[in-house]
Write a structure and sequence with these properties.
It is a single chain. The protein has helices spanning about 1-20, 30-35, 35-40, 45-70, 85-90. The longest helix is centred in the middle third of the chain and has 25 residues, at about 45-70. Helix 1 (about 1-20) runs antiparallel to helix 4. The protein is built from five helices and no strands. The protein has a domain at about 35-75. By secondary structure, it is mainly alpha-helical. It is elongated and about 100 Å long.
Amino acid sequence: MLIIFGILIILACILLGFFVLIQNPKGGGLSGALGGVGNQVIGVRQTTDVLEKGTWILAILIAVLCLTAPFFIGKSGKTQVVAPSAVEKASAGAPITPQAPATPLPNTPAPAPAPGK
């Protein structure tokens, strides 16, 4: 099913690119280079409407396909469940308390002796 979504998305992207390149925004584009073949068949006013509607429909179709495709990704891949270790089990209910290091860190002064001794 995911392959079908991929093919549909690629096809819609190619068609969308074609529709965008054909449009004649302000005197440019491929529609002027093709000799106005589309304008002779459909008409000047309707050609831009059809191309604009087609662009919006294809853009919406791509968005919908991209958003719905993850729902069809199968769970066939093997997942590995890692069991918690004994330390994690023991400390699961215990509060976290900071502990002092067993050996002093390098470049740190030694603790001062207690006064009065």
